[in-house]
Design brief:
This is SAM-dependent methyltransferase. Keywords: Methyltransferase, Transferase. The protein has one domain: 3-Layer(aba) Sandwich (Rossmann fold), CATH 3.40.50.150. The protein has eleven helices and eleven strands. With about 270 residues, the chain is α/β, with parallel strands linked by helices. Helix content is about 35%, strand content about 25%.
């Protein structure tokens, strides 16, 4: 494993939010959920003929990096936040991983295009105007694009989820960093955009159900690693999380389903 530093091109409020995670990098690694083996099974089973080289966009602390690098591919893990990258380097030590400190937009390709480009709960941080051009340039013809995510923060009990939302909305507005809605074929974003781009084909969507039980403390700790809360001043964030905690039972069942989109570069 080696670390490479590249130029970052951060700008705008969304880009700034993408860089708040380094303030809680160790907590992120401890409390954020990983991904089931089924994700790698589906991605590597879809790819053809094999995946020797993969690029990960927004690798974070390496939750998905370890999933793929542990299966054999050499992974170039692109992560813009140096503090997150330091944890990433530590958690992938001994695996075939190169950590590059860069945004997706600032990443410089050295060598041939990749067999696989993937992102785990990070694609919404990329720039809409350029992300598909960048993807097309970085993936070889016949190569695979895999975009998936799960926050594991939605409470399975609808009444309890609504009670928490009422508290949250006293401080935070409703928001979304990604495009909602489905295409005419029933494809959710970002698969809907892959379908609409003729540089990609064989688009698939897979929903992997997963429910987990977590303690109140574990759930609140996870919430504390989300940019929605991290963007708040500490004297606002901590009381808000405490008020949410007052609504929660000792143990919380969360919907941690993973949605995966696959596509092939023409």
């Amino acid at each position: 494993m080696r670390i490479v530093t590249a130029a970052c091109v951060a700008s705008g409020p969304v880009r700034e939010r993408a860089l708040v995670f380094g303030t809680v990098a160790d907590a992120y690694e401890e409390h954020r959920l990983g991904y089931p083996d089924a994700v790698a099974d589906l991605v590597l089973g879809y790819a053809r003929p094999t995946v020797a080289r993969a690029l990960e966009v927004g690798a974070g602390t390496g939750k998905a990096t370890r999933l793929f690098a542990g299966r054999g591919p050499a992974v170039t893990a692109c992560e813009p936040d140096p503090a997150m990258g330091a944890v990433l380097a530590r958690t992938t030590r001994g695996l075939p991983v190169v950590v590059v400190t860069s945004t997706f937009e600032g990443f410089a390709l050295e060598g041939p295009p990749f067999d696989l480009l993937y992102a785990a709960s990070a694609w919404h941080w990329t720039k809409p105007a350029t992300r598909w051009d960048r993807t097309a340039a970085l993936v070889r013809p016949g190569g695979t694009v895999a975009l998936f995510g799960s926050t594991g923060t939605e409470i399975a009990d609808p009444a309890l989820e609504e009670a928490v939302e009422r508290v949250r909305r006293t401080v935070l507005p409703d928001e979304s960093l990604w495009t909602e809605g489905r295409s005419a074929t029933g494809m959710w974003w970002p698969g809907s955009e892959l379908e609409a781009d003729d540089r990609f084909t064989d688009v698939e969507q897979h929903d992997l159900p997963r429910r987990l039980r977590r303690s109140r403390a574990e759930h609140l700790a996870l919430l504390g690693t989300l940019s929605t809360y991290l963007q708040l001043p500490a004297d606002v964030r901590q009381p808000l999380l405490a008020r949410i905690g007052e609504e929660l039972p000792d143990e919380v069942e969360v919907d941690a389903a993973v949605r995966l989109h696959l596509a092939r570069r023409r």
